[in-house]
Amino acid sequence: MFRTIEDFLTSWKHEKETTLKMLNNLTDESLGTKVTPTGRDLGFIAWHITLSCGEMAQASGFIIDGFDEKQPRPATAGEIIATFTKLADAITEMVASSFKDEDLMVTLWFLIPFTIEGR
């Protein structure tokens, strides 16, 4: 549980960096690699994690310019990484500028666990 916005932002920064470490290991060629023979490919999983950031922000009542949860998966790992970075940075900015400590229990508690679950 977070006591302050600063606590949340510290944890969010860590989760953003950890997710980027994972995403930065992807290559354009690896995006089509399936985790299991009948399962989803790495590109699907990476894009799901990326879109989840925007979806969770919207569920918290925020609008991120240019975000469309139905946008198709990009063809390159670099585009997925850039989109994740843009969304994660937008969340950081929105939380830092719009939230108060008392808002933590109402809207932000699920952003980090959902991002971790995707990884």
Describe the structure.
- With 119 residues, this protein is mainly α.
- The protein has a single domain (5-118), classed as dinb family like domain (Four Helix Bundle (Hemerythrin (Met), subunit A), Up-down Bundle), CATH 1.20.120.
- It has 5 helices and no strands.
- The longest helix has 22 residues, at 77-98.
- It starts with a helix and ends with a helix.
Q: What helical percentage do the residues reach?
A: 55-70%
Assembly state here?
Answer: single chain
Query: Looking at the structure, what is the overall shape?
Result: elongated
Indicate the low-confidence ranges by residue numbers: none
User: Looking at CATH, which topology would you report?
Assistant: Four Helix Bundle (Hemerythrin (Met), subunit A)
Quantity of strands, as a count: 0
Architecture, CATH level 2? Up-down Bundle
Mean pLDDT: 86
- The first-level CATH class name: Mainly Alpha
Class by SSE composition? mainly alpha
Largest sheet: none
* DSSP helical segment count: 5
End-to-end C-alpha gap: 20 Å
Strand % is: under 5%
Number of domains: 1
> Any idea what the CATH superfamily is called?
dinb family like domain
Question: What is the rounded Rg?
Answer: 15 Å
Order of helices and strands: HHHHH
